[in-house]
Amino acid sequence: LQGSSSSFSRALAGEKVTLGENSCQTLYFPVSDPEIFVQKLFPEIDYRGISEVTMGAALTEPDLEIKQLRVLLEFADDEDEKIERSYYLDN
Questions:
Q1: Residue 65 and residue 91 in contact, taking contact as beta carbons nearer than 8 Å
Q2: End-to-end CA separation in angstroms for the chain
Q3: Rounded CA separation 88/84 (Å)
Q4: CB count, 10 Å around CB of 44?
Q5: Rounded to an integer, what distance in angstroms lies between the CA atom of residue 37 and that of residue 53?
Q6: Are strands 50-60 and 66-75 parallel, antiparallel or unpaired?
Q7: 3 φ, ψ to 5°?
Q8: How many helices (H) and strands (E) does the chain have?
Q9: Backbone angles phi, psi at 11, to 5 degrees
Q10: Among 31, 4, 9, 20, which residue's Cα sits nearest to residue 60?
Q11: Which helix H or strand E contains 40, and what residues bound it?
């Protein structure tokens, strides 16, 4: 991941996790201009009420295969209201 850091300049490293038998490193990054992204994944939600969209991924070490993708929506009018979806990938 460190070798590819220029591609993820706004990404933050998260915790190490185990998914199945895989040791993974997580990373998170904010989605810039998320309107189209939100409309495709969450068509029932009015994107104008969203304050922040964050993507997350769990990558195997050392192969860097994606095992999980996460999408977190945070809403402007209620700091406690969030929606998160997780997608597990079995390569």
A1: yes
A2: 19
A3: 13
A4: 4
A5: 9
A6: antiparallel
A7: -70, -20
A8: 1, 5
A9: -80, 145
A10: 20
A11: helix 35-41
Instruction: Give 14's contacts (C-beta < 8 A, 6+ positions apart).
Output: 25, 26, 27, 28, 56
Which residues neighbour 15 within 8 Å (Cβ) at sequence distance 6 or greater? 26
Q: pLDDT for 42-87, tens place per residue?
A: 888 888 888 889 999 999 998 889 999 999 999 888 767 898 989 9
pTM above 0.70, yes or no: yes
43 secondary structure, DSSP code: T
* C-alpha closest to that of 31 among 79, 81, 65, 70: 70
Contact 4, 36 (CB under 8 A): no
- The residues, any chain, with a CB within 8 Å of residue 84's CB and separated by 6 or more, are 70, 71, 72, 73
Which of 29, 33, 12, 16 has its CA nearest to residue 67? Answer: 16
